[in-house]
Design a protein that fits this description.
mainly alpha, 67% helix
Amino acid sequence: MDVYDQLPDEFLPALCYEMAGLYTKEHREKEALRMYNFICRNNVNYRDAFQKLEALQAAR
């Protein structure tokens, strides 16, 4: 059994979303992009992750 099988469905995207926000504040755009990409690949409608992903990509 994988550890991710034991987590609620909302936990992983929420964690990635929070990490992406922290990375953005620390000007670590590459890491933030990775987090937002992961979220959007799994659920493009998760909060405002897609908009934040687009904004980061446009700023590059």
